[in-house]
Amino acid sequence: MSKNAEDNIMYAYERACIEKGYTLIAGIDEAGRGALAGPVVAAAVILPINCKIDGLKDSKKLTPGQRSSLFDEIYQIAISVGVGSVDNRQIERVNIFQATLLAMEQAIEQLIPKPDFLLVDGSKMPNVNTPGQAIPKGDNLSLSIAAASVIAKTTRDRLMIAFDEIYPNYGFEQHKGYPTKQHRQAIAKFGVSDIHRNTFKLLAD
Predict the structure, then answer these.
(1) pTM
(2) What are phi and psi of 136, to 5 degrees?
(3) Distance between CA atoms of 81 and 201, rounded to whole angstroms?
(4) Please, what is the average pLDDT of the chain?
(5) How many CB atoms lie within 10 A of CB 174?
(6) Tally of CB atoms within 10 A around 146
(7) Which of 21, 114, 126, 178 is in the most buried spot, having the most CB atoms within 10 Å?
(8) For 91-114, what is each residue's pLDDT tens digit?
(9) How wide is the angle at C-alpha 112 spanned by C-alphas 109 and 116, nearest 5°?
(10) Coil, helix or strand for 45?
(11) Helices (H), 51-166
(12) Are 53 and 70 spatial neighbours (Cβ–Cβ below 8 Å)?
């Protein structure tokens, strides 16, 4: 597939919104939903109309170095960026699905100017008054959602690296709280930390 074809695919949802008269289109995505420790972080990004950012795609398909470079570029180019975070205690109180939506709502609230349409990764819209569309696997299909994916994952990764200094026994700098073999072995040896999600099945067992 040519680069122009890829660009057209990644901007198709935004183009459809523009044709309907929307001009402030925010992409929304989260990071950390499947982790055993740490917060779930969401980001909301409004890019300029017809924006192009070389190499931008789903953050999971990028190296840490690529994400870091794109993180800076997105902040420079974006009209507005918002970030929301829900910690492990609140995740335990409301469940990870509701916590993810809450983090998205926080991120959207931070946007100035306010968006007039939302493109949200996933199958469920957050509880906000702004019209929008939920797009399964949207981080592969929308430039705005891909931008939010990079902001959310990079922000969360940096938080987990900081937590690694506070809780050095768990290897958070390497696995960022996800259920790797190294992480499970650390839990078995040291028990859970203050940032682990104790209600998650792998820990509850």
Answers:
(1) 0.94
(2) -55, 135
(3) 34
(4) 93
(5) 13
(6) 28
(7) 126
(8) 999 999 999 999 999 999 999 999
(9) 75
(10) strand
(11) 64-77, 88-94, 96-109, 143-166
(12) yes
